[in-house]
Amino acid sequence: MANKMSTAVPKSILVVDDDESILDMTEDLLTEAGFEVTKCGSGTEALSLADDRDWDVVLSDLQMPETNGLELLAAMRERRPDTPVILMTAFGTIQSAVQAMRGGALDFVTKPFQADELLVSLERAFERRVLEEENRRLRRAVARVSSFGELVGKSQAMNEIYAMIKKVGANRSNILISGESGTGKEVVARSIHFTGARASKPFIPINCTAMPEGLLESELFGHVRGAFTGAHANKKGLFEAAEGGTLFLDEIGDMPLSLQGKLLRVLQDREVRPVGGTHSTKIDVRIVAATNQDVHRAIEDGQFRQDLYYRLNVIQIRIPPLRERTEDIPVLAESFLRKHSDDLRVRFSDAALRKLSRGVWPGNARELENCVERALALTGSSEILANDILIPEDPATGDGSIEEMLIRIALEKRLTVRRLTDAYVDAVLEASNGSKSEAARILGVNRRTLYRRKERRVADNEREAAIAQ
Ligand SMILES: Nc1ncnc2c1ncn2[C@@H]1O[C@H](COP(=O)(O)OP(=O)(O)OP(=O)(O)O)[C@@H](O)[C@H]1O
Ligand SMILES: [Mg+2]
């Protein structure tokens, strides 16, 4: 694993020292050794850099004005607990070395240091980091295997689904899973099968939309030789192939009506008769069906048989769309990242995660997964930044009618220009976490304009208060 890592992206180091000559010297030494080096002259600056990206190791001087090495260390433990910090101490200050180690530094080197000494210490730090990530990945994998397959999510809705999966694992009642496209109906179906009592038997998925009726029928129930043109031999159907296991009928709402009748009979009698055959075979198969349609509407429209619905719907699992469980977005994104990248160092920046969490996902988890895959392809380093995330646009804003929408609301509420702009400026300031320069950039004005606006508002408020009295 360590070898694989070293060939991927050069390891990155943030070097922090208020002494420029030490910075330059360390940079030369480390660049020479093949590392990607970022220099930084103060602990305060280092912390603000670390807000936006991640380094494999932070190498910092101990004595610095403002934020010293120990304070930087403490703040890093808090913000980026996985980033190893190595402190450089002046020769002979055992006391501070002890403090450094107590504070959670991975190591310390005494200045002036030998090149070898520093490189050995760094190598150890990298190994440690790889090991820790590997451990975390293994723990995650173990947790996954032992609980609900590939399924992740920590929302209340997902917890209820886990509880349901646990409950139904031992019995064989039919299940109907409903949810919008991409919400994870198939993963839930797999999880029911592979964590339940039937796990050692087959799980067979079939999509009811994908095939013409005749073919679907013979696929499901099998056929005997000569049943139709081209039926040269007897063929077992999927019901028999899934014996003892689970048959996953995807897009059940698209199953033609006549076939629905035949399926209902199979479910009632627990036996199948192949197309053109005269004998039935007993079967023991659990049906998990899925639909992204409104089955009730389909029943009302006469497109879906109510009796079949009741047969299938012994247990119902509804997977809410992602917009109703946004707290699952970061966990899902993380799991997609691990699924699509072998490089254990790759991670999301905080800003990237925030952007994902705020996104609209009409295509649900599948769309989020595609987005993460794209971001992985776009990112040039081991950290995925907000810019790498190409968020699918909100249809409300994407079609260019956003201005119209705003004008409509403003007209309805009879908003003054000032109220409208003030509200917008406030919203942008809040979205920029109070950063005036960021807000100014988004608004397309300079910072001074923002300050002036604030002064004006204070004055206006005072005047209004005076008038009111
Ligand atoms: N809770 C989840 N945990 C992990 N992965 C998920 C989860 N939900 C969805 N996914 C992933 O998202 C993708 C889409 O999921 P899936 O195919 O199960 O959706 P679906 O509901 O069957 O969609 P469709 O209706 O379009 O067939 C898959 O790659 C799946 O692994
Ligand atoms: Mg599906």
Q: Estimate the mean pLDDT confidence.
A: 85
Q: What is the class of the largest domain in the CATH system? A: Alpha Beta
Percent strand: 5-15%
Assigned CATH superfamily of the largest domain: P-loop containing nucleotide triphosphate hydrolases
Q: How many domains make up the 3D coordinates?
A: 4
Terminal CA distance reads 74 Å
- Share of residues in helices: 40-55%
CATH architecture of the largest domain: 3-Layer(aba) Sandwich
The geometry reads as: flat
Count of DSSP H/I helices: 21
Ions and ligands: adenosine-5'-triphosphate, magnesium ion
Quaternary structure classification? single chain
**Cα-atom Rg, whole angstroms?**
31 Å
**E-strand count:** 16
> Which runs of at least 5 residues are low in confidence (pLDDT < 50)?
1-7, 393-400
How are strands sequenced across the largest beta sheet? 2-1-3-4-5
Give the structural class: alpha/beta
Under CATH, the topology of the largest domain is which?
Answer: Rossmann fold
What kind of sheet is the major sheet?
5 strands, parallel
Please give a quick description of this structure.
Helix 3 packs parallel to helix 4 and helix 19 packs across helix 20. It contains 21 helices and 16 strands.
Structure write-up:
The chain has helices at 2-7, 20-32, 43-52, 69-79, 94-102, 115-146, 156-168, 185-194, 213-221, 238-241, 257-269, 295-300, 306-312, 328-340, 350-358, 364-378, 395-398, 402-413, 417-431, 436-443, 447-468, and strands spanning 12-16, 36-40, 57-61, 85-90, 107-111, 175-179, 203-207, 222-223, 235-236, 246-250, 271-272, 281-282, 286-291, 315-319, 347-348, 383-384. With 469 residues, the chain is an alpha/beta fold. The chain folds into 4 domains: 2-141, Response regulator (Rossmann fold); 156-320, Rossmann fold; 323-392, Helicase, Ruva Protein, domain 3 (Orthogonal Bundle); 397-468, no CATH class. The chain has a 5-stranded parallel sheet with strand order 2-1-3-4-5, sandwiched between helices. The longest helix has 32 residues, at 115-146. The chain is flat, with a radius of gyration of 31 Å. The structure holds adenosine-5'-triphosphate and magnesium ion. The site of magnesium ion (MG) has 3 residues, from helix 8.
